[in-house]
Amino acid sequence: MAYRDLRTFLARLEREGELTRINAEVDPVLEITEITDRVTKAGGPALLFERPKGSNVPVVINLLGSERRVNLALEVDDIDQVAARVRSFLDMQTPQGFLDKVKMLPKLAELGSFFPKTVKSGACKEVIRKDDFSLSFFPILKCWPQDGGRYITWPMVITKNPETGKRNVGCYRMQVFDERTTGMHWQTQKHGAEHFRSARARHGSGRLEVAVAIGADPATALAGILPVPPDLDEFMFSGFLRRDAVELVACETVDLEVPANAEIVLEGYVDLSEMRTEGPFGDHTGFYSLEGEYPVFHVTCITHRKEPLYLTTIVGPPPQEDFFMGHAIERVFLPVMKMQYPEIVDVAMPPEGIFQNLMIVAIRKSYPGHARKIMNAIWSLGQAMFTKVIVVVDHDVNIQNPREVVWKTLCAIDPQRDIEFVLGPVDTLEHASRLQDFGSKMGIDGTRKWQSEGFSRPWPDEIRMDAATKSRVDALWQSLKIDVSRPRR
Ligand SMILES: Cc1cc2nc3c(=O)[nH]c(=O)nc-3n(C[C@H](O)[C@H](O)[C@H](O)COP(=O)(O)O)c2cc1C
Ligand SMILES: [Mn+2]
Fold first, then answer.
1. pLDDT at 303
2. How far is CA 30 from the centre of its chain?
3. 201/7 Cα distance (integer angstroms)
4. 3-class secondary structure, 441
5. Res 411: pLDDT
């Protein structure tokens, strides 16, 4: 059964020994970050700061900062069970006859049940503040010493495409400028930014309505991060993940809907002719992202639950909570990638590669130049376009083991021949490119080279002991009494 809201999930985490309450007064300025950073890096629990300094609202953080909590959030033992559900929908064939059609009905009905449902009211309306409201009610973190201020780091920013009316949900950080205004850090290639540009093109000036929901059941809270194509509703995917529709309620002052179970909702607008300097911010690259010009969000109304919880996260030197969320999303979307490119056997994005810097791909190579075809495919695939370095290896490399990747890739390349450079869009957070948002990317073809690729020398076999010797030594092993349990360096 899907979690009803954030609290229901916290109660589950508490039962599982995955939540620690902190009753000491702790400052949302820097202190919560320092504590959370230590806890995440040690593989520790989710945290509930009950007495953040300067606010009556408790802080929830590190909610999904481990594989186990991500699995609990999605109610599986292993993330690949979610991937298998994705595959089962992708595998649906065109029905051949009446019986086939009948057999498909339950699956179709299931698919239908994932669409968001509008309901009359919800807990997020328990308190409605149209006059008496301020962002200073909430324990919004200043995360790192050089940050430009306090930042809302895990919002679901909801807008409608001015052309099509389709909803978008994105997680874009929001720097608090004062009690009723924040920055809106939607990077230029993101869907929120596209809505902003399209509203400007249509109306020149005026407002784009925006609603921001903070804190919900975990699958809904993930909506803003899901890398789904434009005009596909992220809440539909959350419905798929939680196996139950996301319930939405209409906002009070804007024509948008928000999750009914949200803890806190900020309603307002972005002025189409206003930009303001945002940043710096200690980012998920492990470095500060620099100041930049971004739109400004004006709050016109705040609604929240009675005794709301403030859900937030920090990013910074990896690994942080976003690694565990991103990794789960990578596993869930892998079947979609494989459907388009069946030659892809596996994909790996180690935490130090911070998602946009490194993607390792194992392929079943079938024709000359195949590795380069896959690089180009990835550079044109949604947000994977940002990938600074792509390493393509053969299907028999275990890419989940970074040591094996380093060893086999470096053995397989003739650098001058096997490296591909391209120019194109890069992540806004990329700080080494000569220009913001535009730079170069590199692909490494670490596959075995073929004659048909102009390689005329023989390719050596990988060294492996033969099975007969292995089993003879297996039989002897205990009697040899060699202690290898303690590594000697
Ligand atoms: C904690 C966290 C903070 C993020 N902050 C931003 C941000 O400030 N700006 C941004 O463009 N993307 C940010 N992202 C990434 C977006 O949420 C992600 O690219 C998402 O898919 C964008 O949605 P969209 O494709 O609908 O634009 C953040 C992700 C996480 C996990
Ligand atoms: Mn989107």
1. 98
2. 24
3. 42
4. strand
5. 98
Using alpha carbons, select from 187, 212, 189 the residue that is nearest to residue 269. Answer: 212
**Whether the CB of 333 sits within 6 Å of ligand 1:** no
CA separation for the pair 203, 240 (Å, rounded): 35
Residue nearest to atom 20 of ligand 1 (CA): 225
| Residue 239 alpha carbon to ligand 2 centre in Å | 15
pLDDT confidence of residue 91? 86
pLDDT attached to residue 487? 80
User: Angle of helix 67-74 relative to helix 6-15, nearest 10 degrees?
Assistant: 130
Residue pair 47/24 in contact by the 8 Å Cβ criterion:
no
Structure tokens, 251: 């906002």
User: Could you give the CA distance from residue 6 to residue 124 in angstroms, rounded to a whole number?
Assistant: 12
Q: At which residue do the structure tokens 């590795």 appear?
A: 371
Residues contacting 36, CB < 8 A, separation 6+: 47, 61, 62, 314, 321
37 is catalytic: no
Pairing between β-strand 257-259 and β-strand 389-394 as defined by DSSP bridges = unpaired
Place of tokens 């940002």: 386
Instruction: Please report the pLDDT score of residue 304 as a whole number.
Output: 98
How far apart are the CA of 325 and the centre of ligand 1, in A? Answer: 12
Q: Which of 37, 244, 283, 418 is catalytic?
A: 283
pLDDT along the chain (489 residues), means of 10: 97 98 98 98 98 98 98 98 93 80 82 94 98 98 98 98 97 98 98 98 96 98 96 96 97 98 98 98 97 98 98 98 97 95 98 97 98 98 97 98 98 98 98 98 98 96 97 98 86
**What pLDDT score does 320 carry?**
98
Instruction: Using CA atoms of 214, 219, 224, 229 in order, give the dihedral in degrees to the nearest 10.
Output: -160
Q: Please, are residues 264 and 302 in contact by the beta-carbon 8 Å criterion?
A: yes
- Whether 170 lines ligand 1, by a CB cut-off of 6 Å, is yes
Which of 475, 385, 378, 487 minimizes the C-alpha distance to 426? 385
316 phi-psi bin (left φ>0, alpha ψ -120 to 50, beta other): left
Closest CA to 263 of 355, 92, 137, 126: 126
190 lines ligand 1 (CB under 6 A): yes
| CB 227 less than 6 A from any atom of ligand 1 | yes
Enter the pTM of the model: 0.96
